[in-house]
C-alpha cells in the first residue's frame, strides 16, 4: 500500500468498485487476482497481434506440445524438460563462482601442504628410509586432498546448474536444419533452412499446468506461430518486407521436423517423457501422427456484430488468444485440476467444506503438498513469452517481464473513469484487512445509480470501518480527487521502482567489484604460494 495515500475505494462509471493504491504482487502463476487482470490484458495483446498478422496476409498456427508423464514425475523435472532450466540470478551466479574459486584455493592449499609434508619427510628421514617416509606423508595428506577435490567437484556442478539448459521448446528453433547454414562457404540450398521456407517470424508461447489425481502433473505448451513473412535486418533492426503463402510441402516439412525434434529431445531427457507420436484411431484428425504435437491453422472470420472487426479462430472455433493466455479460466479435462482450482479447493477444505462437497479432488494435505511443489517448479519462469523482436516486426510495443506485468495492472485501473470514492488511511485499511472485511469494504463502494450522492458511498465504507473499530480513518473523494490521487500513486510507485532498480544495480556493481578484488587477491596469493613452493623445492634438491 502507498503509505501517503492509503487505499482508494473508487467507483467506476459503470458502478463497479476497485481498490487503488495497493501494492500488487503481479505473480501470474500464483495469484488469482493479479493473474486474472494480467492474462486479460495479455489476451487483448495476443488477439491484436494475430489479427494484425492475418490482416497483412500472413499465416498463423496454434501448436500444442505435450509430454508423457505419470505419478512418479516431479513437476520441476517435467518443466525443465519441455521449457528448459531456469537461468540463475546474477547474485546466484556470482556466489557459485566464488564458491568454485574458494574450492580451487582449498585444493591448491591441500596440495601445497601435501608437497611440503612430503619434502619435510624426505629431509628428515635417514638414508634408505626416505621413500617410505615420503609415501607415508602422501598417504596421511591424501584425505585432505580428496576432500578438497570433492568440494571442487560439487562447486563446479553448482556453477554448471546456474547456466540455462535448453529444453525441447528451445530445440525446436535451433540447429542447421531449422535455421540453415549461414556460413559463407555454404551453398545457396544449404543456407536456407525450414524457417526460411515457411517464413517464420516468431511465436508467442504459453506454458500451462494441470494436476490429476492419478498421473499428477501435466505441463504443456501452447504456441501461436507466425509464418509467411519475409524480413530484413537482424535483432532490433529486423523489419517486415513482405508476406507470402508457404507451400504445403514446406508446412509438412516443418510439422514433421518439429514432431521429430520435440519427441527426440524428450526421449533423450527421459524415455518416459516420449510423447504420443503414433495413433491407430480410425479417421483421427492427427492422421496417425499422434497427439504429442498438434497443429491447428488459424483463420479469420467476419463478425458482423463487431462492425467488421476480425477475430482469429482455430478450426474448432476457439479463440486462440484465450487458448493461449487465459489459463486461469480453463477447466482441466478428464478430472484434472488447474492450479487455481486446486487453490480454491484448499480454501474450501480449510473453511470446513467436506472433501466430497468441495470441487476437485484430493485431501487437504495432498493439495497443499501439490501446491507447494507447483510454487517451487514455476519460480522464475515466464508463463507467457513472445519471441524476441516479434513485437518490433509486428509494430507493437510492450514486454514480457514482471515489470511489464506490473504496468499492465496499473494500466488496467488507470483506464477506468471514476464517479467518486473514499480514501481509507494506511491504519484504517490495515484494520479492515486484519478483520477480514476488505471484500465488504470493496462491495460497499459499488453502486449502479449514476446520480447517487457521493457521500452515500463514503457512509457505507465508514460503516465497514466501524466494524473494524476505525470509523474515522476514511474521507470522501470527488471523481477528480480520485483521478488525481491515483495519478500521484502511479508516479510514486514508478519512482520507487526506479529507485529499487538503481539500488539493485549499485548492489550488483559492488558485488562485481568485490568479486574482482577477491579474484585479484586470490591470484596474487596463489602466485606467492607458487613462488614459495618453488623456493622450497629448490632448497630441498640442494639439501
What keyword list fits this structure?
single chain; 543 residues; alpha+beta; six-stranded antiparallel β-sheet; four-stranded antiparallel β-sheet; 18 helices; 14% strand; globular
What do these coordinates show?
It is a single chain. The chain is of the alpha+beta class. It contains 18 helices and twelve strands. A hairpin with a 3-residue loop joins strand 4 (202-212) and strand 5 (216-227). The longest helix has 64 residues, at 479-542.
Protein topology:
Blueprint: E1 7-12, E2 17-20, H1 32-55, E3 59-65, H2 75-83, H3 90-124, H4 130-162, H5 168-172, H6 176-179, H7 188-191, H8 194-198, E4 202-212, E5 216-227, E6 229-232, E7 239-243, H9 248-269, E8 293-302, E9 310-313, H10 320-325, H11 339-350, H12 364-378, E10 384-386, H13 390-394, H14 402-414, E11 418-424, H15 426-434, H16 438-444, H17 454-467, E12 474-478, H18 479-542
Antiparallel strand pairs: 1-2, 1-11, 3-5, 3-8, 4-5, 4-10, 6-7, 8-9, 11-12
Shape: globular
Number of helices: 18
Could you tell me how far the N terminus lies from the C terminus, measured between alpha carbons in angstroms? Answer: 76 Å
- Quick one: how many beta strands? 12
The chain-level mean pLDDT equals: 80
The spatial strand order of the largest sheet comes to 9-8-3-5-4-10
Q: For the report, how would you describe the main beta sheet? A: 6 strands, antiparallel
Q: What percent of residues are in strands?
A: 5-15%
Seen as an oligomer or otherwise, the chain set is single chain
Protein structure class: alpha+beta
Q: Encode the helix/strand succession as letters.
A: EEHEHHHHHHHEEEEHEEHHHEHHEHHHEH
Low-confidence stretches: 301-317
The value of Rg in angstroms is 31 Å
| Helical amount | 40-55%
